[in-house]
Amino acid sequence: MPRKTWLFVTLAASGLSACGDTVAERAIVGAGAGVATAVVVNGNAGTGAIVGAAANVAYCEAYPSRC
Fold it and tell me: Which of 8, 4, 15 minimizes the C-alpha distance to 67?
């Protein structure tokens, strides 16, 4: 597996593992992970932030015991 793919998977997992205590914290952590991932895969950082924030908030709302 290419190095970029491993880095992407690691960043995505790290972002979801550090959920935060409030919705705002979850959004910030997710946005950070999304931006980092977008930079690694040469994507749009703004889109990465939005997608990362939404994904982290949705995940933590769906599975609060895992956050």
Answer: 15
